[in-house]
Design goal:
The complex is a heterodimer of chains A (about 180) and B (about 625).
Chain A lengths: L7 H4 L10 H15 L9 H22 L1 H11 L14 H19 L3 H28 L3 H30 L1
Helix pairs in contact in A: 2-3, 3-4, 4-7, 5-6, 5-7, 6-7
Chain B lengths: L1 H4 L15 E6 L3 E8 L2 E4 L9 E2 L1 E5 L2 E4 L1 H5 L8 E3 L21 E4 L4 E5 L2 E3 L1 H20 L5 E6 L5 H13 L4 E6 H13 L3 E8 L4 E9 L2 E10 L4 H15 L7 H17 L5 E7 L5 E7 H25 L9 E5 L6 H11 L12 H13 L10 E3 L6 E5 L3 E6 L7 E7 L9 E7 L9 E8 L12 E7 L5 E7 L8 E5 L5 H45 L5 H18 L4 H31 L4 H6 L1
Parallel strand pairs in B: 1-11, 11-12, 13-18, 15-19
Antiparallel strand pairs in B: 1-2, 2-3, 2-4, 5-6, 5-7, 8-9, 9-10, 13-14, 14-15, 16-17, 20-21, 20-23, 22-25, 23-24, 24-27, 25-26
Classes of the chains: A mainly alpha (about 180), B alpha+beta (about 625).
Chain lengths: ~180, ~625
């Protein structure tokens, strides 16, 4: 039985930071599931099974939130009372949006021409930009505690991940032909 | 008999409380039941030593036949002999692209297709329950009592409707079901524990009617499914069908009657199986109108006509690896599961795609049932193995709701680890709207029409508000069986509105109750069959014990005594083969009686042996 009100960092025994040790996160996840997973309580009462289901789902949700950089940063901000996940208000910088638009256009041309090498290079460009963004988010969150600034970057990173996913889908579609 | 066994005290030491658990692989073509005994998973064979039960149910003139018995009649009574029922589970007639292949008279009822048989209209759930009942019986006989926990496997790519139908069938068959387990995951457990495997593995599972590919990471006793994909309507059956079409084409045959079609399909399957070890297979068939078919199928032709079926498995393999963000070279080993993976062209394609020969050091027919048995044994609370392990599985297909314009809004993505709970907020789009219809769908496509409809809910009693003001929280919960439940409530006003669940698939509790009622009629047959089988087991044990006693201690008997025992023995052996439980029981009692004096003498001798050379206090103190 786990306390469903504890925050995910606390639950997984990790410091409340953007930079997490992936090995420690994986280890904590497996240890928690070893305790709460429904398979551990299959011969229990209906109530115990219900608790196992809820606890295990909570641990899975926590793992998902802490594993992915965008989700993790959003969650950290949420703990600080800042909503970074919502669609509302602030626009993304125009220059950032233009860059992504260009890439999408370039990618669809590469796709039409079945030019998988060009597509690969656009994907790695996007991935590099995402990595730089992650580094700056780490500094803003973990060192400077500059949450409102971090929020803007997190929204850019979320946008970039979407672009990256879409490009990968194109890559895979191209591979299958 | 108990007296005979006293001579081997260490074998009759009281066992700790052991709960009877089985794992069941409910396959398209064959099904199996397995259990864990003394720490080893083993398939339970029938009284002729056959491990498989053909997944065939015949509604005959004198009752239901399952397995080999039904199989023997499939060509002569095709419309009442249901094969490959797994393909029909949780499916409407419209879902069955290959409905024309089945010789059955289908009825398209609400949600799931049904089959007209001489015993009435049967749902795939009822037909599957007959197979499960036969397996349950086999398990009960082997384990000596009611099953206390069962794990039934399903293809990883089965959607919610197919899973629900399987669980309903297990309930109907009177199985206390602990878990639905994904077939490739079950195979990974059996393989992984057996080989102490660590690293990332691919399980390529091509069964009789379904294909699954699962990518698993094995880390210190944790089996974590990273991604799964597949095709729940692709399997060995389709290869048979290709051969069947090739025969019709090559021999220039007109469309066949159900009986001839079934016979040609059986011959097609035999040819396919023969090609696993040979370069060519003869096809000699005489049809009911005396037309003779005399063809030879070579491996080259077979490969050519099934090429695109093999290719169809590779799309899901790619997608699973993409979802797991892995390359073929990241895979440490590829485990082949399912009888259809014996085909050489499958092995070649897999080896080529992954750049390594697949692992084949296990029986592809049995590994799923063995994994299920290991899981059942653990879930029921028996700790046979020292090592501790845990399974983390995923949901194969995304779950969502219909939004405006017939589009889907995903709430849970495919390959999310289960159990999982996700909520999403929706709002009203009209002023004063007090009800909201929620349509739950499963699938990857954008348009609702291309996804599978799972259920429709209605949320009523929303307080009238302006459009967009209500906040309706829809919660999806997927349990460890991969089964979904959905609830919804209006958040803003704190008013808890009730929801009405109208499943568009599966069985209502009322239907289950009615079917269970009907199956009480079966209960007597079941009990009869079980007692006969139990008497047979008892007879076998007694015969074996008597023979072994005669070998070691025959000198304790006079010639007359020995002859009496031999007579009683041969009576038991003769009646063992027949179906008369009472006669067998009487013969067993007679043999028990004939051997009781022998048993006494053996006990005396055994006590004399064990006391020899021991001090009195060690005997008294024990």
């Amino acid at each position: 039985m786990i306390d469903l009100t504890r925050n995910y960092f606390d639950l997984f025994g990790l410091p409340e930071r953007f930079r997490v040790d992936p090995a420690a996160l994986d280890r904590a996840y497996r240890e928690l599931q070893s305790e709460v997973h429904p398979d551990r309580h299959a011969s229990g009462t209906e109530a115990q099974k219900r608790v196992a289901l809820q606890s295990s789902a909570r641990v899975n949700e926590g793992y998902r939130a802490l594993k992915d950089p965008v989700e993790r940063a959003s969650y950290l901000l949420e703990l600080r009372g800042i909503d970074a996940a919502g669609e509302s208000d602030t626009q993304l910088p125009l220059e950032f949006l233009e860059r992504q638009l260009e890439r999408r256009e370039e990618a669809s041309e590469a796709n039409a021409a079945s030019d998988s090498r060009r597509l690969d290079s656009i994907v790695s460009e996007v991935d590099n930009e995402a990595r730089d963004l992650e580094d700056s988010i780490a500094i803003l969150l973990d060192r400077d505690h500059a949450y409102p600034e971090a929020r803007g970057r997190v929204r850019q990173l979320r946008f970039l991940k979407k672009v990256s996913d879409d490009l990968r889908a194109l890559q895979h579609a191209l591979d299958e032909h | 008999m108990p007296l005979l066994q006293i001579a081997e005290p260490e074998e009759t030491a009281p066992r700790r409380a052991f709960r009877r658990a089985v794992g069941i692989d409910l396959g398209t073509t064959n099904s199996l039941v397995a259990t864990v005994r003394n720490g080893f998973a083993m398939v339970l064979p029938d009284d002729q030593g056959r491990p498989l039960v053909p997944s065939i149910v015949r509604y005959g003139e004198n009752g239901v036949e399952v397995g080999y018995e039904a199989m023997a009649r499939q060509s002569t009574d095709p419309q009442n002999t249901i094969v490959s029922v797994k393909r029909l589970m949780g499916r409407g007639l419209a879902d069955l692209a290959d409905a024309h292949r089945f010789p059955y008279r289908f009825v398209d009822t609400d949600g799931m297709v049904k089959v007209v048989t001489r015993a009435g209209v049967k749902s795939p759930v009822e037909v599957s329950a007959e197979i499960l009942r036969a397996l349950r019986l086999r398990g009960e006989v082997a384990l000596g009592g009611a099953i206390e926990g069962a794990v039934v496997t399903v293809p990883a790519y089965f959607d919610d409707a197919q899973r629900q139908a399987t669980k309903d069938a297990a309930r109907l068959a009177g199985l206390p079901i602990l878990r639905l387990l994904n077939e490739p995951t079950a195979a990974a457990v059996a393989y992984g524990l057996d080989n102490a495997a660590e690293g990332t593995y691919a399980i390529y599972d091509l069964g009789g009617g379904t294909f699954d590919i699962s990518i698993l990471k094995l880390t210190r006793g944790v089996f974590e499914v990273l991604a799964t994909n597949g095709d729940s309507a692709l399997g060995g059956d389709d290869f048979d069908h290709r051969v069947f079409c090739w025969i019709l084409e090559t021999a220039k045959l007109p469309p066949q009657s159900p009986a001839d079609a079934r016979m040609l399909l059986v011959k097609s399957r035999e040819a396919k199986e023969m090609l696993t070890g040979h370069d060519a297979a003869p096809l000699l068939v005489t049809l009911s109108d005396n037309t003779k078919v005399d063809l030879t199928l070579t491996t080259d032709t077979f490969s050519a006509i099934t090429q695109n079926l093999v290719a169809r498995t590779l799309g899901p393999v790619k997608r699973a690896l993409n979802d797991a963000k892995l390359k073929p070279s990241d895979i440490k080993g590829v485990v082949l599961v399912g009888g259809a993976t014996r085909m050489p062209q499958i092995r070649r394609a897999v080896a080529q795609w992954f750049g390594q020969p697949p692992l084949t050091n296990l029986n592809p027919d049995e590994v799923v049932a063995l994994g299920a048995a290991i899981q059942a044994n653990k879930l029921v609370g028996n700790r046979e193995r020292d090592e501790d392990w845990l399974l983390l599985d995923v949901i194969p297909l995304s779950l969502g709701v219909e939004t405006m314009g017939g589009l889907t809004e995903k709430i849970i993505s495919r390959n999310a680890t289960i159990p999982i709970t996700r909520a999403q907020e929706f709002t009203t789009f009209k002023d004063g709207q007090t009800a909201m219809a929620i349509h739950v769908v499963q699938g990857e496509r954008e348009r609702v029409a291309d996804c599978r409809s799972l259920a429709r809910f209605e949320l009523r009693g929303i307080p009238p508000m302006v459009a967009g003001a209500a906040r309706i929280r829809v919660t999806f919960e997927v349990d460890a069986d991969g089964l979904l439940s959905v609830s919804a409530r209006e958040q803003k006003t704190g008013v808890e509105a009730s929801i009405e669940v109208k499943p568009s698939y599966g069985l209502s509790d009322k239907e289950i109750a009615r079917m269970l009622q009907e199956s009480f009629a079966h209960a007597t047959e079941d009990a009869e069959a079980r007692s006969l089988a139990e008497s047979q087991v008892e007879a076998d044990q007694l015969v074996a014990a008597t023979r072994s006693a005669l070998t070691s201690d025959a000198d304790l008997l006079s010639a007359d005594e020995r002859a009496a025992i031999e007579r009683a023995l041969s009576d038991v052996e003769r009646l063992r083969a027949g179906g008369d439980r009472h006669a067998l029981h009487a013969a067993v009692s007679a043999l028990n009686h004939a051997t009781s004096e022998f048993a006494n003498r053996r006990m005396d001798r055994s006590i004399a042996h064990s006391l020899a050379g021991k001090r009195v206090d060690s005997v008294l103190g024990s």
